[in-house]
Amino acid sequence: MNPLIEQPHARSTCTDLAIVGNGAVAMSIAIEHRRRVPDARIAVIGPERRPGSASLAAGIMLASHSEIEATTFRHAAGRAKFDLIRAAVADWPGWLDVLAAIAGLEPPKIRAGTVILDNPNVSGFDPPNFDAILDALRRDGSDHELVDPADIRGYRPTPHLRATRGVRVPSDGAIDAFAVMELLDEAAAALGIERIDGRAASVRDGIVHCDRGRVVHAERIVVAAGAASDGLLRGIPELDGRVPRILHGTGVGLRCRATPGLTTPDEVLRTPNRGAGLGVYHVPFGSDRFYLGATNVVSVEPREHARLGSLHLVLQSAMDEISSELRHAECRMVTGHRPIGADGFPLLGRTSVPGLWIATGTRRDGVTAAPEIARRFVNELLGMDDGLPACLSPERRPITVLDRDQGIDVAVRSRLIGPGSSTGVSAGRLEDEVRRQVVRLYDRAGLDVGVPAELLDLYADGRLDASRLVASTNVD
User: Fold this and answer.
1) Residue 48 belongs to what domain range?
2) How confident is the model at residue 7 (pLDDT cuts 50, 70, 90)?
């Protein structure tokens, strides 16, 4: 056990800054603050083994442009999120060097380069999102090259599901989640940051009550517990109805090892994002290890176990769209709960409750954006310039970027992902039926605006409050 983790007999702690959560964002904020204010007392609260951690379960793609969708820049919040991620991706090499120097370790290696594949035979999201990625790369003057998918090493999809075009982005890449989290833990230990092994049960009036009887008194508290943040925030009466809900986006991935003679891609291969947080990607680590993802099942309460359908989706998508040879690989399933805001955007910054801050809702971008989120977060904690985007402030009405018709169209396309779903007479009939189902869900929810496709059922079931949604006027 880390010697800095206090033992259960120590019942009370007083500190300058308590950070609830021990994922990548939480750890990065703690380390950044300690580096700038060496004498600050900092406590990080979270289970040592991190069960259900989105950070540990991630196939960390250091991607900014690769994550762009056709709707990304419709709202200032989309631009702000992209800017955070883009700055973080550029900072990762130097950030790893700093952490490694603090921890006395060698920095983990970044696997540079990502190829995005456009596969209209599987998803109607691919062509428009691929075009949006290309447009942004050209507009930003970012290095990229168009590639013929047939020339990509290890790319051996089912013939009729071969991508029609691809683009290589050298500045995007990937890194092993386990190595990153180990480095963050070791850097925190070297800096003397206090670690408390346990879950926060409540946050109130500058006090964090933990599940093992521990009590932490802090001048300032940052709630950065990922998807688990929602229960803590809902227990604070002053924030009732003022902060969008944080949901559990349960994702399944596979950490794999190539068997002898198996040729796998040696760079990140991925599709554009597909509605409802889907898409398929292959992330290599070392010479024979790789990660396959992804799925996303959203719920208000955490799901302890993954669904068989999610596992099937990862396996089938990877073998159909990346390489049929992947069936020979050895694998181990990992599951994590991504924190998804009720509007799809992060919640970052101070609240109206004195001394209370929030850092969550980052979906699958939390680890990627961690260096930049931490830098800007600590700027605000210390009263400095270049802080967090105001449009991502936690106390806000849920952001909307789609009108009702656009939201319905996105939901329909999300439910039609699969081989042959976009072609043929039977596909047309299927789309008509799915559209009728989606319209019924929108009517049942009383939605006058579009919502993220993965959240539609929650609104229709009354688990999310549609009355707080208003058409946005903040569109780029």
Assistant:
1) 12-57+179-246+343-392
2) very low
